[in-house]
Amino acid sequence: MSERKRVLIVDDDPDFVAGIRAILDSQYDTVVAYNPKDGWDALKKDRYDLLCLDIMMGRGAEGVMMARKLRKDKVLREMPVLIITGLREQIAFLFPGQAMHPGFVPVDELVEKPVEPELLLQKAAALIAASEARQDR
Predict the structure, then answer these.
(1) Model-level pTM?
(2) Percent of the chain as helix, strand, coil, to the nearest 5
């Protein structure tokens, strides 16, 4: 049996985190950080197979800043990022795949809150599988 994959959830809404963690715990080992600083510390301390990231935290779009920082990090930039957001207007700053404009943040996938459990599990599995396929090359 293969080792369970690890997912880091960074979101400042404890109720939402409890919901998505309950879904993801069925298939993954999950760790939670309730702010970007703790999330970054967790990324530097341990290895994760997927980052689930909220956009709006703290003083504003701190999730966008965290995604940008992640993509500049030589070790972490290949980690798949699933943005889970309830704010349609923030999606203008994010673009799945390659960034098209310097104002965009390259992320692997994004979904809107509330997210259906099956969709969340499908997206997580697909992102982890794609990341593993890239690493095997």
Answers:
(1) 0.86
(2) 40, 25, 35
